[in-house]
């Protein structure tokens, strides 16, 4: 990890063994975490160039534009990168009916982890 | 990916080949993304049990409690898990002087990706 990578003004993503960095998208207005996905170099370049979020699907092994089938395109308001340049934060506005999750919910993170009486479970929120 | 994993109330994280899920921490008050890290099953269990964030360091190959050396402990206000249960969202309050990044900054995402005149670079914010 170079000092330039941590402190400098040059974009030099630290891709993992699969050529990916992690990307987290939050709602630009509410701050809610909407989804987490991955980008390869091409997805990152296309996101920067177009202002709309592109990712790399690990399960399908291909580049995809978020919303290409659902219409839930993510318009990027701001992109940030973290200290060691292996994670991207996208602040976005969601097109269409404002759902981001493929289940139709606004956010993929619709279940809260709850612990009560020694057992841990999930509770659907909102 | 089972329907129960996506829709049910049972915590059944989908760990990757290295036994990890991704965890993103946001400031419970401002919504700012503070850091992104990874958890193995033990880190997740300790976080749930203690209400403070534990992670697994890929570079050091060991469990670590955030703030164990810096004092910047993350107190968990809420934990959520995403649709396919391979990512965790922690809403936290930060102890100490409220820095989360090892560089002393509040958030690890202190640089904005900016594109101007055909070149892409990073600009330190705030």
Chart the SSEs and their pairings.
The structure is a homodimer of 126-residue chains.
Chain A: H1 3-7, E1 21-27, E2 33-39, H2 41-50, E3 54-57, E4 62-65, E5 74-81, E6 87-94, E7 111-116, E8 119-124
Parallel strand pairs in A: 1-6
Antiparallel strand pairs in A: 1-2, 3-4, 5-6, 7-8
How does this model look, in words?
The structure is a homodimer of 126-residue chains. Chain A has 126 residues and is mainly beta. Chain A is built from two helices and eight strands, in the order αββαββββββ. Chain A has helices at residues 3-7, 41-50, and strands spanning 21-27, 33-39, 54-57, 62-65, 74-81, 87-94, 111-116, 119-124. The first copy, chain A, has a four-stranded mixed sheet with strand order 2-1-6-5. In chain A, strands 3-4 form a two-stranded antiparallel sheet. In chain A, a hairpin with a 2-residue loop joins β7 (111-116) and β8 (119-124). The longest helix of chain A is centred in the middle third of the chain and has 10 residues, at 41-50. The first copy, chain A, is globular. The N and C termini of chain A lie far apart (41 Å). At the A-B interface, β1, β2, β5, β6 and β7 of A face β1, β2, β5, β6 and β7 of B.
């Amino acid at each position: 990890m170079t000092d330039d990578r941590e402190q400098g003004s040059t974009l030099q993503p630290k891709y993992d063994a699969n050529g990916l960095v992690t990307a987290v998208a939050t709602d630009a207005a509410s701050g809610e975490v909407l989804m987490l996905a991955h980008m390869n170099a091409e997805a990152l370049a296309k996101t920067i160039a177009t202002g709309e979020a592109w990712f790399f699907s690990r399960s399908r092994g291909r580049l995809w534009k978020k919303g290409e089938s659902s219409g839930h395109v993510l318009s990027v308001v701001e992109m940030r990168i973290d200290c060691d340049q292996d994670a991207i934060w996208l602040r976005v506005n969601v097109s269409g009916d404002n759902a981001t999750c493929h289940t139709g919910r606004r956010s993929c993170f619709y279940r809260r982890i709850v612990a009560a009486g020694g057992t841990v479970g999930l509770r659907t929120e909102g």
